[in-house]
Amino acid sequence: MELTDNNYKTIIKNNEKPVFIDFYSPTCSPCQILTKLIDEKLEAYGEANGVVVVKCDIRANPKLAEAFKIRSVPFTIVVEKGEKLSYAEIGLKEENYYFTLIDKLTGKSSFFSRLFS
């Protein structure tokens, strides 16, 4: 799902679930790797586990980029209930990092919990 300046309130402010946001630029190679991972795996995994996974093009959504003070991409962050910000990371991490983060947000203990649930 794409997060935009226009749908921010619906997706973030009116949501009880944690929201994982990937801020990216279409011209950034590491960003493209992460957006592909989101499209192919993370969005469905997050949805199945109660986490909303979205991505935000910083060029098309300058208000959000400014609000989150994005200076480098890819930049990921989690917005939890009450608009609490956590798990801010700059740069591309290994694939398992993102699955483990969703597991943490949902109370699962580890990577292996995905295999046996």
Give short descriptive properties of this protein:
single chain, 117 residues, alpha+beta, Glutaredoxin, 4-stranded mixed beta sheet, 4 strands, 42% helix, globular
Description:
This protein is of the alpha+beta class. The chain has one domain: 3-Layer(aba) Sandwich (Glutaredoxin), CATH 3.40.30.10. Helix content is about 40%, strand content about 20%. It contains 5 helices and 4 strands. The protein has helices at about 10-15, 30-50, 60-65, 95-105, 110-115; strands at about 20-25, 50-55, 75-80, 85-90. Strands 2-1-3-4 form a 4-stranded mixed sheet, covered by helices on one side. A hairpin with a 3-residue loop joins strand 3 (about 75-80) and strand 4 (about 85-90). The longest helix is centred in the first third of the chain and has 20 residues, at about 30-50. The protein is globular. The two termini are about 25 Å apart.
Summarize this, please?
The protein is of the alpha+beta class.
Radius of gyration: 13 Å
Number of helices: 5
Give the domain tally. 1
Distance between the termini: 25 Å
Computed structural class? alpha+beta
And the CATH topology?
Glutaredoxin
What is the CATH C-level name? Answer: Alpha Beta
Total beta strands:
4
Main beta-sheet strand count, sense and barrel state: 4 strands, mixed
Which homologous superfamily in CATH is the superfamily? Glutaredoxin
User: Unreliable segments (pLDDT under 50, ≥5 consecutive)?
Assistant: none
Order of helices and strands: HEHEHEEHH
